[in-house]
What does this fold into?
Amino acid sequence: MRKGRWSSFINQKLQQSKLSTLMVTCFIAFNLLLVSVVVWLAYQSFSAVTFAEISKARLALLNESTRRGFDFITGVTGTAYGLASNRELSNLLETADTGRLAQIHQRREVSRILDHTMVVSEGITSIELYTDVFNEVTVTMADRIFPVDTIAHDSWFATLEKADAAWVPLRENESGQSLVGYAQRIFDSRGGTVAYVLIRLSRADIVRRFADVPMVLDGKVLLVDTAGNVVMQMGRVDPAGEKERADRRNEASTIQETGEAVNSSSSIIDSAWIQEHVQHGADGYEVVSGQPGGAQLVLYSRPAMLQWRLVQTIPVYTLLSPLRQAGWQILGIAVLGLLCSAVLAYLFVRRIIRPLRQLIKRMRQLEKGDFDTRVQLSFTEEYAHLAYGFNHMASQLTTLMEQVKDESRAKREAQTGLLEAQIKPHFLYNTLDMIHWRALDYEAKDISRMIVQLSKLLRIGLSGGRLFIRVRDELEHARCYVNIQSERLPFSIQYQEQIDPHTRGCYIPKIILQPFIENAVMHGHPEEGTLRIQVHMHEVEGPHQDIVIRITDNGRGLPEGWKLEETCGIGVRNVHQRIQLYCGKRYGVQLSDRESGGVEVTITLPRIETDEQLNLWLDGEK
It folds into this structure.
């Protein structure tokens, strides 16, 4: 129902709108839809291609950063190996047969070697030595030599016991800096482990290695070791893009233990994700959705020396920010073009509509009676045809006016004759009405009823000259006839109707029931003394949707050998011929004897509900 109201509302608004408004609106709507679809498709395609190219360029940059940034590994591992293979250091760690004073001297020499190595090595935060050979020596000055128990409980120490050297994550030191270190075992002359050297690197030292590569620290960069464990995080997500790269390079974050997520902002980009998605020895990128800050572009470089690599995450929103600005500029240009096209469309439509407005103006003059008005021919063929048709119509109106005057004169004369012809039935109705009231004056109620029934019978029979009447009127006509006959016949008449309510409003030829009821009354002569007449009317389902009328009585039945084609009676044959004349050969009347006595009349008619359908039948189009 709501849909119907909306449809009616739209139709009403369209009917009230001007053609120029509709044309301009449709043009703007079509262009807006076309521009929107084209801009959206172009933006999507361009975004996809640009995003892929940007991702490839960022991946190449990340690979270069990995290669150049991990050059320091050679120096760190070389420093550790140099200390492990230093014969002087190995000799100083041999304290089995020396006294306490000699051990103090040896410890000072070891500390000197560590300080010297620290000075000559670039980019190293500290060098520490863990050994138990000097546990009995008491020192008065702090140095870089500690007992093995200091690191024995760290998670990475068990890994170091299985290898000669390893990169290890470290806890924060006293300065609060997050560190990563390289541990190397030092063997004595008998092949046993005599000490552990640990080279510490601060996060600032590592970040400084990548500072010369532009944009490498956009977003967040994870330092991943050989097993895919996150050793360190560099950088921090900055969606607004308002902080300088120099500030990002100097940010600090907490060093995490191997296998744990770097921090809560890392979300699902952790060791488990890296081990699952990153292929061994290959680089690539992937878009990960479901992040708290939106979709993230995850890039992972090819492994550098020692099979370490960098994993970088960049918010897609930040990455495509320049592209969105370009998209807004393109959209602005499209809107400007749409506005210009709307103005041009308005001017063009206005020029196209001008001849129509002139035609409407001349038509209004014609409505006021100015038949001399004319329309100038337009420059387009269609408008020229309209102008010619209007001018030809206006020129014909004068001739038609004269014809109308002549026809009006003839019509008045015909109406006069028609009124004279109508005086006769009108006079008859008035006469019957006068007899009716006269009979009431003499209290002759039976005569009054017969006069009323006769008046109805005549009115329905004439029906203003119509050939078809409603079923309810035909039934009323039959009842009037039965009531009149009941007053004059010596036997009683029991008249019954069984009518389908859906058929009462349908059209049927008039006076088709009365002839058969009259035959039953005149020729039936029932033996039981009461004449029973029943009228059944119903619809027949099928492709034609016919109406079937059955009239039955309890009279004597048809004469032996009676046939409809050979009957000399006027009423039955007249009804049959009229039905076939108006409705076609498949419709008509059939009469037959009933098994229980009497006659059964079957009348088949088409279902005609509306005046339009009736006109089609009368015109022969059905």
